[in-house]
Amino acid sequence: MIDSIEGFARKRTLQCVVLLIFSLLVGRLFYLQLMDDRYVEQANRNAQRPIVLYPPRGEVFDRNREYLVQSRPCYDLMVVRHDMDKDGFDTARLCAVTGLSIEKVRRELKKTAQRPRAPHLLASYVLQEEKMRLDECNFAGFYTVDRTMREYPRKIGGNLLGYVGEVNRDMIKRNPVYSPGDYVGMSGVELSYEKELMGKKGVRIMERDTHGALKGAFQGGAADSLPVAGSALTSTIDAKLQLLGEELMRGKVGAAVAIEPQTGEILMMVSSPSYDPDELLGRERGNHYMKLLRNRRNPLFNRAVKAKYPPGSTFKLVQGLIGLQEGVLHPSDMHSCSRGYAYGNKKMRCHDHASPLDLRFAVATSCNAYFCYVFRDILDNPRYGSVKEGFDKWREYVESFGFGRKLGSDFLDEGQGYVPTRAFYDRAYHKSWNSLTVLSLSIGQGELGCTPLQLANLACIVANRGYYYIPHIIKHIEGRDSIDRRFYERQYTKVEAKYFEPIVEGMWRGVNVGGTSTRAKLPGLNVCGKTGTAQNPHGMDHSTFMSFAPKDNPKIAISVYVENGGFGASIALPIASLLEEYYLTDTIRRPEMLEYVKNKVIYYPKYDK
Q: For the chain, how far is it from start to end, CA to CA, in angstroms?
């Protein structure tokens, strides 16, 4: 009886196990057939070939709607190893048609061994005439994908416009919208406005038959999508002025920036040396890039927005304005200058000029001694408890002029320059320092560092009598009503407008009455200017000049900085003056000055060893 019961129980258990296994199999089959679409997708992938449709990047115009950057057709040459001719492939013929080397073709084909059904990029930047020859040859397993490449009709603005390169692994990780083979802006406008310029990719899905041959669009093209072209950009640049600026800066190292004071629109931005933007296109791009990278003058470095230069005597304008606002200086205040400012056993040297002199004449003649007095009065102001508190107040004023920080322009790689802090000097001098210790700041030397963009912006501030618009290089984006709101807002300094008049008058006198800037005089245009000579430990002094014109209702503000150029009036001034004349009159009436500047080539021990 017991054996009978145990046998029955084992039988029932076995039945339950069998039933459970059967249920699991049925359930799994149901899930795979009706719920899980992975295998359907895998089967579809084996029967489909998606072809990415790349959009053309947006084009870039100058302020007068002349092309700065265009897109022209080119192609990627793709290969699918599985579809190649099984009876033998004529490598030599392919190389003859495309201009590729046999080594490159063999190297790329070797990479396809592990994924024979996957499309593989064999070559990029295939030109239209090469594609036509490829189509005639009809190589099995090879096909082309439409792409575009950049084209620069005027061959200007390499550093300004930037260049395009292929995305790398890190970029794809940071932004999954990109895939291997995509092109992306690497610098300049191409980088700053990548989202606007890139457009949106489309896709065409082709269907294969059982033999792997393409037989047409999958589902009649229902799943296809068209690419969307990138937005066109209208820049603030004047192409003719930019071209002249690059010609005048050739053979020199430095930068020149011109801005429209009433809008903050950058009219010209030259970084010298620059490069032909066409050099970073096509299959030789890598070789050209390495050549530029090895150039000791560093043409890939945009000095206009990144370099950190001592402002020299142009910074005296800021000292005068701070002194006026703080009440320690009045335009009629007289100070003597005996070829410099003596303190202890040292002397801040100055050139010959009449003495004593007032603020306007001090600006016109760029007197070092005068602004030493002003700077010390600012820091030693009894209103503050100590020199260090006076220094902190001075630094607040300087920052309000846009120094020691980024201006917020539409250049993502904009530098901020450098204005030393109290903590810096506490560390450097073990907290034992005074206004004489940092006296070099009075004439724009010492630890001060400014970008040429900041110096051009200072010219805008003085031209506008106390405010500026954030400098920017794009004025319109296709499909948008306006650019970023911040570019339309006035940015005020901590100095009231009424204090700018004597400084403006001094700059005007320096050009039109008698001072260090008389070579910049343009009859009828009321040019205002200020020279600067910045000390340089690597050779001759740096030459700089800052200017705006006309005096009232100014149309252009400009700053030019030439490394090792000597006095401000020697090379920076004539470059700026010629550019102002050309922009305001559309002509140049001083051929001797033009030839002098164009033929001036400067030797740089720092770069030309």
A: 110
